[in-house]
Design a protein that fits this description.
This protein is an alpha+beta fold. It has 24 helices and 27 strands.
Length: 729
């Protein structure tokens, strides 16, 4: 417009010999005709004229014509052109006015008339028509006597309205640059857009022989939607060319400037120069580890996703999905193959992974997420990082540095904990680690250990010399009066002596003044006799007076010894008083629990059944006094469910026991329970009140040596001295 205005001033100089237009009627062509036409065409309504615009142009042009009216002095030609211009402006104004009035009419005929009036006002009420009529009137009325002026004013009209050289030049340059851009873009064009799979998936028909690797960034230049980024996924069939799938990426980027020179309806590779822009670079780096896309049937707890990256995706790995504004982590627990129709008759086979929700990582623990991810949104595989052991960590997610910790060691005790799994998968090492954590919290731990492993692994907390003396006294008590019977069966045999010796030993142990926090018994080595029935007269010789009162004495079983210790611990905990703020005081560790507290249904003897029930009652009553248990077994089905059902924290390791898997399904879910037989050594499904995760998780447990190095640096073992049990004697 500015260039055309300069051209007009130059034409005015050639026509009238001065730069500024004349103030008389001879300047009418410039002010009312050409200048109004120029402003309307290039500034006010460059594309189309609404009825309101047409009225504005027609009224302003009509008023201008009326203001220069000299009817009495004009000849016939002037009057004819005057009437033509005035009537034209009036008709245009009427047509535009009717378009406005009738646009909301209820009658379909009136609506058609309104649309016709709108089209007519746009076609004949635009500035080119209205002000061209005014310009021709001005030429006839004021300049017909000067051929020189007519030629220059006509030239101005031809340049601005007819020829429009600047517009033609701009259009030529745009088309030429478009052709040149297409030539340059031929190397980066992937293909044309074939279809959409809403939401977020684009099918690209690729004609050229080009291999587009996974996560290749490209620009989707669709004329119907703003240009956006997408990442190449995989090939899903043929349709007049290869069909490439791509997933749309939303990073809040505006790439219209990059896409404006690219062919429409195509997908093109992102140039290396564009990839250097920080915003685009950050976006691509965030999407580099795409593993798949969210599949149908995904729920709040369970994620299904179509696997695109076939390498590195395996059971136990973590994946991440955007849910709202949060990044939510899921753990892969299963997978299966699927097939579906993608486009026309093309079928597509793929792997679909199943993952369980873990939560939102806040840097220390996982928080819950309350909604589902969007269908077809990208799923990212968390990169593999080396795990660094830490004092508060019990394990980590496989192939990642995301950790899981014991939220509260005291809840580990008071709400009871079970470690379940077959022989040789690391149960005892985990139990020993948990015991060490309890000791660090000043919790007294009584281990009933048939394996003799705890004394060795926890030697830094165990005064073996002093404890051997204590055990020797207990064993001697069990040997004393082994053949002694009593009219009261409860007092017969050596079991009362053994019970009293154990009680004295445990009383010294739980004394708050005692700095020792670990006590270990092997129930199989604590031998004593018990009297079951009242004594009877038995003949011992041929004489008339050779009679003696005797009773049958039995050896107490490990199950009965376990009951004695459990009930004594409960009694001592009660003497210490109610637990304060949920703090744990004493933990009973049942190692090889299927021997110590077996399921009542699998026992034959009534005494062992009563003993198991007695141990279970002690655990049930102990919580309010700060007493709880840690139960370790390789035979879930053979452990009393009275205790097992009270274990609010579970470490489920590799197991082939179908009964045990069914039992655990109620705790950790059917999906995780079915995977127990496939777990590797030192892997566990961890769930419960003491876990830092709200949902069951499959973790790799700490290496024993690495744990000791990290934990004992922060919680060094206390120096053992004679102020322990011996000092309190």
């Amino acid at each position: 417009m500015l260039v055309y205005i300069i051209i007009l001033f130059a034409i005015n100089w050639f026509a009238f010999g001065q730069w500024l237009p004349l103030a008389s009627n001879k300047g009418f062509w410039f002010y009312t005709g050409i200048l109004s036409l120029l402003l309307g065409t290039h500034l006010a309504t460059p594309y189309f004229s609404k009825p309101a615009d047409a009225i504005a142009y027609a009224v302003s042009a009509g008023i201008a014509v009326l203001l220069v009216n000299d009817w009495q002095n004009w000849n016939l030609a002037n009057k004819a052109f005057f009437l033509t211009a005035a009537i034209y402006c009036l008709v245009v104004a009427i047509i535009a006015f009717m378009a406005i009035i009738l646009k909301d009419a209820k009658s379909s005929q009136l609506q058609k008339i309104a649309k016709m009036c709108t089209v007519a006002s746009d076609s004949f009420g635009n500035p080119r028509w209205v002000f061209s009529i005014v310009l021709f009137f001005a030429i006839v009325a004021f300049h017909k006597d000067s051929i020189h002026e007519v030629l220059y004013i006509g030239l101005a009209w031809a340049i601005i309205v007819a020829l429009r050289p600047l517009e033609s030049l701009a259009e030529f340059m745009q088309r030429a640059s478009g052709l040149w851009a297409k030539e340059l873009a031929s190397d980066i064009i992937v293909g044309e857009i074939a279809a959409y799979q809403m939401p977020g998936i684009v099918l690209i028909r690729q004609a050229a022989q080009r291999n587009v690797p996974l996560a290749t960034p490209m620009i989707i230049n669709d004329p119907h939607v703003p240009a956006h980024l997408a990442l190449g996924l995989d090939y899903v069939g043929r349709d007049e060319g290869l069909l490439l799938r791509a997933v749309e990426v939303t990073c809040g980027l505006d790439i219209r400037n990059i896409a404006k020179s690219l062919p429409e309806n195509t997908a093109t590779l992102l140039t290396s120069e564009a990839c250097l822009e920080k915003s685009i670079k950050d976006c691509l780096e965030a999407h580099a580890n795409i593993a798949g896309i969210v599949a149908p049937e995904t729920s709040i707890q369970r994620l299904y996703f179509e696997v695109i990256r076939n390498t590195d995706v395996e059971e136990g790995r973590l994946v991440e999905v955007t849910v709202g504004k949060n990044r939510v982590l899921y753990q892969i627990i299963d997978g299966l193959t699927k097939e579906e129709i993608i486009h026309q008759k093309n079928t597509y086979g793929y792997a679909r992974a199943q993952a369980q929700r873990i939560g939102i990582w806040d840097g220390k623990k996982f928080k819950s997420s309350g909604w589902i991810p969007q269908l077809n949104s990208p799923v990212f595989l968390k990169t593999t990082k080396e795990f660094t052991p830490a004092a508060d960590v019990v394990g980590h997610f496989p192939a990642s540095d995301y950790t899981v910790s014991i939220k509260n060691v005291h809840e580990l005790v008071t709400h009871n904990t079970a470690i379940l799994g077959i022989l040789g998968v690391g149960k005892s090492m985990l139990a020993i680690e948990l015991v060490e954590r309890m000791i660090a919290e000043k919790i007294k731990v009584v281990c009933l250990d048939l394996t003799n492993q705890y004394a060795k692994e926890l030697s830094s907390f165990y005064d073996s010399v002093a404890e051997q003396n204590c055990l020797l006294k207990i064993q001697q008590a069990g040997e004393k009066d082994q053949d002694q019977c009593n009219d009261n069966p409860r007092e017969g045999g050596s079991l009362p002596n053994l019970t009293q010796a154990i009680k004295e030993d445990l009383t010294n142990f739980v004394n708050p003044a005692n700095t020792i926090h670990l006590k270990i018994y092997n129930p199989a080595k604590l031998v004593a006799t018990k009297q079951v029935k009242e004594p009877a007269n038995v003949k011992v010789g041929p004489g008339k007076d050779d009679w003696e009162r005797k009773a049958v004495l039995w050896t107490a079983t490990p199950v009965e010894i376990t009951r004695i210790i459990s009930e004594i611990v409960l009694e001592l905990a009660q003497e210490l008083g109610m637990a304060e703020d949920g703090k744990a005081k004493i933990c009973l560790v049942y190692e090889e629990a299927h021997y110590l507290v077996p399921e009542v249904g699998s026992l034959v003897g009534d005494s062992d059944k009563a003993a198991t029930n007695g141990s279970a009652r002690a655990i049930l009553q102990g919580r309010k006094y700060g007493m709880g248990c840690l139960l370790i077994t390789q035979r879930t089905a053979n452990v009393t469910k009275t205790i097992l059902n009270q274990c609010n924290t579970i470490f489920a390791m590799r197991s082939f026991d179908e009964t045990g898997q069914k039992f655990l399904a109620d705790y950790i879910g059917k999906d995780y329970a079915e995977k127990l037989s496939l777990l590797q050594e030192r892997q566990a499904v961890f769930f419960g009140k003491a876990s830092s995760c709200e949902n069951p998780v499959l973790i790799s447990l700490n290496d024993r040596d690495a744990f000791k190095e990290a934990f004992r640096e922060k919680h060094p073992p206390p120096a053992l001295n004679e102020q322990g049990v011996q000092g309190l004697e």
